[in-house]
Write a structure and sequence with these properties.
CATH topology: Porin
Distance between the termini: 48 Å
Number of strands: 16
Number of helices: 4
Length: 351
């Protein structure tokens, strides 16, 4: 047991140095617009919006310290003339991993300008949005939760956490760093408002901030992450429609591709009630070994007037499935849309 804890501690110390260059992710990326693309700030119908996301990953093999990610954001729209809008938002993210509680904390203030480029009573509405986020971040680890060989007491055959670890390069936190993100978004809503299409691209960490955690490594630059995403709603009938979507991300040596679709049923009433059910496939790379299937994500979402609730579960399909019995990650999303005082002339999709 002592050796296992020692090995586990070192595993998380070494993993922390690798995780610094990567961002946490959400399988319900479309339900986390703040983390997906700064240009999605204000891309909704209503006066303001609040979004919360929670992810619990690999608890089947890492309990009681799995990977956990929390995110919360709110944004508000302001009219600029009869058709255009300006939006402001504030968002925060906390991610923690493993025994050492390696954590990433970020807070951003963002804004976007939404310009209607075409539209009319008998034509589809097309909108182009440009957005940016500026904020601060800090990474940390709880070194008191792990132990090193100098702390092992052979008489007790157990680690002594009160003994000095003798690691001069271990420190608790990285220095606070400045972080800058930007993105572009195009979306179109059909003239009947029963279908929409979106296409966006985003760049995160454009300034490549220093996130060094170890004292003997004074410079550890966070990789630039770029994201390409697309989706839409293709109506079959007044009640049924298909919502396809895809996501492509690249950050340093890491690549990820998500593609899938959900069926959406709506009662098509003034007090709209809608249900979505679908699945996404995620493919990732393994360093220089090419792309491999990582997980199948099963998703259900409920839309009830101003609220949208999403539940998803990652079914592991990689070689890790032999260890975790295909039990990957559970995810929850909750979105609230506050209606505007007046109905906007510019319509927005509900992603």
């Amino acid at each position: 047991m002592a050796f296992r804890r020692f090995a586990t501690g070192w595993f998380w110390v070494l993993l922390a140095s690798c995780l610094q260059g990567q961002d946490p992710r959400f399988s319900q990326f479309y339900a986390s617009p703040w983390n997906l693309n700064p240009a999605m700030t204000g891309a909704f119908e209503g006066q303001w919006r609040a979004v919360a996301n929670y992810r619990d990953q690999w608890s089947s093999i890492l309990s009681p310290v799995p990977f956990r990610t929390y995110s919360a954001a709110a944004d508000v729209r302001f009219g600029v003339g009869p058709y255009d809008h300006f939006a402001l938002g504030l968002g925060a993210l906390h991610d923690e991993a493993g025994t050492a509680r390696f954590s990433q904390n970020k807070v951003h203030l963002g804004g976007a300008f939404l310009k209607q480029i075409s539209g009319g009573p008998r034509r589809a509405t097309h909108v182009l949005s440009a957005g940016a986020q500026l904020g601060f971040g800090q990474n940390s680890a709880d070194w008191g939760r792990v132990w090193f060989s100098r702390q092992f007491d052979p008489l007790q055959e157990a680690p002594d956490f009160n003994a000095p670890n003798g690691e001069p390069n271990a420190q608790g936190n990285s220095s606070p760093y400045l972080d800058f993100n930007a993105g572009l978004l195009w979306y179109a809503v059909s003239r009947r408002r029963d279908g929409f299409w979106t296409l966006g691209i985003a760049w995160h960490h454009l300034n490549r901030p220093n996130v060094a955690l170890l004292a003997d490594n004074p410079s550890e630059r966070l990789y630039l992450r770029w994201t390409l995403h697309a989706g839409g709603l293709l109506p079959f009938t007044e009640q049924m429609g298909l919502m396809p979507g895809l996501l492509l991300m690249s950050q340093g040596p890491a690549r990820e591709f998500n593609a899938g679709a959900a069926l959406r049923y709506s009662n098509n009433d003034r007090n709209e009630l809608a249900l979505r059910a679908g699945a996404w496939a995620r493919v990732v790379n393994r360093l220089n070994q090419g792309m491999h299937a990582d997980a199948i994500v099963a998703v259900v979402m409920l839309e009830l007037e101003r609220w949208m609730l999403g539940l998803s579960y990652d079914i592991t399909t990689s070689s890790l499935a032999r260890v975790n019995n295909s039990r990957g990650a559970f995810e929850l999303s909750l979105t609230y849309y506050h209606p505007a005082v007046r109905r906007s002339r510019v319509v927005c999709p509900r992603f």
